[in-house]
Specification:
The complex is a heterodimer of chains A (507) and B (166).
Chain A: H1 2-14, H2 17-35, H3 41-48, H4 57-82, H5 91-102, H6 106-139, H7 144-161, H8 166-181, E1 183-184, E2 191-192, H9 206-224, H10 238-247, H11 252-267, H12 271-286, H13 299-314, H14 316-322, H15 328-339, H16 348-351, H17 353-384, H18 389-408, H19 411-429, H20 435-458, H21 469-506
Antiparallel strand pairs in A: 1-2
Helix pairs in contact in A: 1-17, 2-4, 2-17, 3-4, 3-9, 3-15, 3-18, 4-5, 4-6, 4-15, 4-17, 5-6, 5-13, 6-10, 6-11, 6-13, 6-14, 6-17, 7-8, 7-20, 7-21, 8-20, 9-18, 9-19, 11-12, 11-13, 12-13, 15-20, 18-19
Chain B: E1 13-15, H1 16-41, H2 53-73, E2 80-83, H3 84-107, H4 109-124, H5 129-150, H6 159-163
Antiparallel strand pairs in B: 1-2
The chains are: A mainly alpha (507), B mainly alpha (166).
Chain lengths: 507, 166
């Protein structure tokens, strides 16, 4: 009940005129960011973050999180109309969304996608509303060892649950940690890994890294593909919307299943990308006509969108409650909280009640605003995609450069951004995942601090990570998740070999 | 934009394996550099963890992962990593971008941005000259209005802005 009244107070904060204004601006910017190639959720938030330093933190986070919702919605537009996934998590949406557009059912597909997104996001927000305060109050009992164990759990689940090559995930995580270690060491006050460079004393700002890795590299990849946009037309009118909505209750099982998968994958950092594919896979498996998937089945649009949004939203739960972001964009938002002087984590719910509940309330409203805005403005955003790339690309690159510069007014940072652009380009082509790098970069200092504090308390003995039931469980769970992936791979390989042997014997 | 290669055409370009191997070697070098720096400053225990303690441990894990990637990279399928044509496309974006960043210090961001747009759009060459010139003037002006006037974020300025009194 206490939480309920806090939430109502949050709605009062979020519903003030200027916060609603920021919400609308944020959603519109977010859709643009999601539609344009080369920009994306993390990058868009990273570029705008320095501009919000002067704002009231609650308004700033509402603006930035609305960009996040908008970007999530925007991805669906390009997937369905142009067969170009604006974000990795909308890849699965193209499988059935684009065929629907080809059959002239673009409006239906878009309505389904937006509504599914909304339902997914809503289930994520409801989860946050009820579970985050519980997790936070539980986490108030954590000491440094427990916190390090939670960090370990996050990183191990990345490696164990990841779809990419595990060695590359691990390498990517380590690079993030090492980049975070460059510069002034907060405990001893000594310089590390600066190799005599004064510019490196500040360390690597994660925003510069994000803009390079996600912005510049994305443009380079887009250019490489030659870039011919061939879009389908879409006009959404109220009749189609209402008709599509009337048909949705039939798919309640798909929606529910995808929402649950999404929430699970969001809280454990499996991420929206994995969630969208899993949602799609499950919908196909449980469908009565699995063959119709990939040819324009509306369930093939509903499932991945619901799952992706449920995951994208739920990724904010561990960020708010524990200070551990579940996605790259959540990591950027977390960086913002730190800049505004707010300590993300369990204490936030005690010390910054108004802020947290204002944010949670804005999630409900922002997603509702997002749904209305996208439904009303699809033709406009589809038109953005028709602007020739030779106009769009330089503007995006200039905005990226400005974003990198404004973080600490340093031209060196723009050069760094270029460097990370190249790194991102090569890494993406070689299937090194980038999200673990960003997460480790943001969390590096905090993970190191809790690690060192835990060891200080125990006089250097690693036994502190098995000192009580809680920390032992967390570490055990982390190791389990770490080993889960490789073990399953091994079993799969053995089975395949067994089948091959059987087939040979049968011949 | 017109040069989209058909999938069945044999494309010439950089193969994937050497790129994988080079990247893995670079990562190994990076790992060794981290270890060298950490042990140089002290990565042990001196009444508490020294400041190279954590990076050194991450460095070892990183080195192990990179060595593993190196071993794996010899087994990668050797298909085309990037065709020379694609590489050319990327260079056509990257070269003007480097020029842009290099010009920010002497000329200020706005003028550099204008020149960047001119060079970039002429290289890509899909628009009429007046559209290019108009974009090169309007985009920096719009940036100036948004960042300098609305958000009050000072961006690097050069002689032209000084001449105009900013």
């Amino acid at each position: 009940m206490d939480d309920f009244s806090s939430l109502m107070a949050g709605f009062q904060v979020a519903l003030s005129w200027h916060n609603v204004g920021f919400m609308v601006i944020g959603v519109v910017l977010g859709i643009i960011v999601g539609v344009l190639p080369g920009l994306g959720g993390p990058n868009g938030v990273a570029i705008l973050l320095p501009l919000t330093f002067g704002m009231d933190p609650t308004s700033a986070i509402i603006l930035l999180s609305s960009i996040y919702w908008g970007a999530l919605f925007g991805g669906a537009i390009t997937s369905i109309l142009f067969n170009i996934p604006g974000e990795a998590w909308s890849v699965a949406t193209t499988f059935d969304g684009y065929p629907m557009a080809v059959q002239g059912k673009a409006a239906e597909a878009l309505t389904a996608a937006f509504t599914a997104s909304f339902i997914g996001a809503l289930s994520g927000v409801i989860l946050i509303t009820f579970v985050a305060p519980l997790v936070a109050s539980f986490a108030l009992r954590f000491g440094p060892a427990e916190f390090f164990a939670v960090f370990l759990l996050t990183f191990c689940s990345f490696i164990g649950m990841g779809r990419e090559n595990r060695a590359k995930i691990l390498a990517s995580l380590c690079i993030g940690f090492l980049l975070a270690a460059v510069g002034l060491d907060s405990i001893s006050g000594d310089l590390r890994m600066t190799f005599g460079s004064t510019e490196l004393m500040r360390g690597f700002d994660f925003l510069v890294v994000v803009i390079g890795l996600f912005g510049v590299s994305e443009i380079m990849l887009t250019v490489e593909e030659g870039l011919v946009f061939k879009g389908k037309q879409a006009k959404i009118d109220l009749k189609v919307v209402l008709r599509t909505w009337a048909g949705l209750p039939r798919y309640w099982a798909t929606l529910l299943r995808s929402a649950i998968v999404g929430m699970w994958m969001g809280v454990t950092p499996g991420g929206a990308i994995a969630a969208s594919f899993m949602g799609y896979g499950l919908a196909k498996r449980f469908s009565r006509q699995p063959d119709s998937f990939g040819k324009g089945n509306i369930e093939g649009v509903l499932a991945p969108e619901t799952a992706a949004h449920a995951a994208g939203t739920s990724a904010l739960l561990p960020m708010l409650a524990l200070g551990i972001p579940g996605s790259a964009t959540a990591a950027v938002l977390l960086g913002g909280l730190l800049v505004w002087g707010l300590q993300p984590g369990p204490l936030l719910f005690v010390e910054q009640k108004q802020f947290v509940w204002g944010l949670i309330a804005s999630m409900y409203l922002g997603n509702l605003a997002g749904l209305i805005i996208v439904l009303a403005t699809v033709p406009l955003f589809a038109a953005i995609m028709r602007i020739p790339f030779s106009y769009v690309a330089p503007v995006i690159l200039i905005v990226c450069a400005i974003g990198a510069y404004t973080i600490s007014n340093s031209i060196f940072d723009i050069w760094l951004m270029l460097g990370f652009g190249l790194v991102g380009y090569v890494f993406k082509k070689l299937d090194y995942p980038l999200a673990p790098l960003v997460l480790a970069l943001v969390l590096g200092d905090r993970a190191e601090d809790s690690f060192r504090q835990a060891l200080l308390g125990s006089g250097g003995s690693l036994k502190v990570f098995a000192a009580n039931g809680l920390v032992t469980t967390l570490v055990g769970l982390a190791l389990f998740l770490l080993l889960w992936g490789p073990v399953m791979d091994g079993i799969g390989a053995l089975r395949r070999r067994g089948r091959a042997v059987e087939a040979k014997a049968a011949e | 934009m017109s040069n989209v290669t058909k999938p069945d055409e044999p494309t010439r370009g950089l193969s994937r394996r050497p790129v994988e191997i080079t990247t893995a070697l670079l990562l190994i070098g990076l790992g060794l550099l981290v270890l060298y720096d950490s042990y140089g400053r002290g990565a042990g225990w001196d009444n508490g963890p020294q400041n190279g303690f954590f990076p050194a441990r991450v460095g070892w894990i990183f080195l192990a992962a990179s060595l593993f990637i190196l071993v794996q990279s010899f087994r990668t399928e050797n298909r085309v990593f990037v065709s020379y044509e694609q590489l050319g496309q990327v260079a056509r974006v990257f070269a003007p971008l480097v020029l842009f960043v290099a010009l920010i210090q002497p000329l200020g961001l706005y003028v550099a941005a204008g020149i960047f747009i001119l060079v970039f759009m002429s290289i890509v060459a899909t628009s009429r000259w007046w559209a290019v010139v108009l974009t090169a003037i309007l985009v920096p002006l719009a940036c100036f209005w948004v960042f300098e006037l609305q958000f009050r974020v000072p961006l690097p300025k050069g002689p032209l802005e000084a001449l105009l009194g900013y």
